[in-house]
Amino acid sequence: MSPQETALILARAQFAFTVSFHFIFPAFSIGLASYLAVLEGLWLWTKKQRFIDLYNYWLKIFAVAFAMGVVSGIVMSYQFGTNWSVFSDRAGPIVGPLMAYEVLTAFFLEAGFLGVMLFGRDKVGDRLHFGATLMVAGGTFMSAFWILSVNSWMQTPQGWAIAANGQFVVKDGWLPVIFNPSFPYRLMHTVTAAYLTTALAVGGVGAWHLLKGHKTEAAKTSFNMAMWMAAIVAPVQIFLGDTQGLNTLEHQPIKVLAMEGHFEDSPHGAPLALFGWPNQETQHLDYAVTLPKLSSLILKHDLNAPLPGLRSYPRENQPPVAIVFWSFRVMVGLGFAMFGLGLWSLLARWRGRLYEWNWLHRTGVAMGPAGFVAVIAGWITTEVGRQPWVITGLLRTADARSPIAAPAVAGSLIAFVIVYFGVFAMGTWYILRLMAKPPQEGEPEHPREPTRTAGVTPASAQS
Known about the structure:
Layout: H1 3-46, H2 49-82, H3 85-119, H4 121-124, H5 126-155, E1 160-162, E2 168-170, H6 175-178, H7 183-211, H8 217-251, H9 253-260, E3 272-279, E4 284-291, H10 294-300, H11 321-350, H12 358-366, H13 370-386, E5 389-391, E6 395-396, H14 406-436, H15 458-462
Antiparallel strand pairs: 1-2, 3-4, 5-6
Helix pairs in contact: 1-2, 1-5, 1-7, 1-13, 1-14, 2-3, 2-8, 2-14, 3-5, 5-7, 7-8, 7-12, 7-13, 8-9, 8-11, 9-11, 9-13, 11-13
């Protein structure tokens, strides 16, 4: 392996490592911000104490998760300049403004009203405080909107032209760039995944406290609401995933063929590979367990629809098939497990045993982290499936990196690994510690105002 190839692998590994850490926290904060808005709205409507108790309980966790998402996201931005300067130079006229819109609209909105959420209820009143919660929830959605618009443009570029200096520029206005072919599908699928991820985390915490005998109204309500989300949203998410798959088949067929493990052409209907081992050297799916023609039915809605194989495409344009194949199965498998949990909860409701079935609660606890695993698996499927392109069909990943030596990239990668595992392990431990305590009746708010130290003297402290 040449030094250039080593540097490329290390740069990709560094970005994959940091984005995997980062993506967990925005996925959680997007869903949790909306959950907080629902809780506060229900409290204002019904004046039932359990809703404001849950709001105060989850607000503390949201503040920590939000902060960790911001910190990890800042590091990723620097990597565009350090490891991917060619990409930054060539795609900057398109990617740069969209990223700036995210900061100017979404991040400023979140950061501005988060302080009111945490410290301002006594200052602004209940209704204006609810407005601040809505603003933060809206800001998290807008953040997802802009980031996914950027990423979707890299997946399915549209509305671009190449300037005399080789840069990608906007051709006929921003709307074709923002609303590129894959963007609406990916936005709906990703945001719904964030809501489902949060529901499973909330449900897992509620189930844990029910198992521990903390059958308070707040614990019951959190488990109840989470199971409704699993029962309703999980099938919606499966449908949205199917629509995104059809869109991907239209615009990025190689990615879908890698997801399905299709190497050979299937002129009379392609089988659905449940399991197998993609062998990219021989261009064959080894040890395959398949169902005849079912892939054509899913992808084309026709049992006999022909599908090409990866062999029809040059090997240099194929993604790492094994990674895409298995990450896709992890995502889909967990999606159907969530659907099964929702159905089980409906049965428990029908039998009047939602708060009594311990095995349902144990499964809820086990499924608590499933949403985080599923969103990471889906992100891997999306990003690795796009390879070898950083901008599909226009700019290869190998041509987008900075001219930086492998030892320098390795040094920063090691530093990131050490710092991330240290800082985020502590943050995650703190979040789990907060979750381990059951929500109490009259749950205290986050500190009503920031600690003030300016002007404090021994004399004033005694007075």
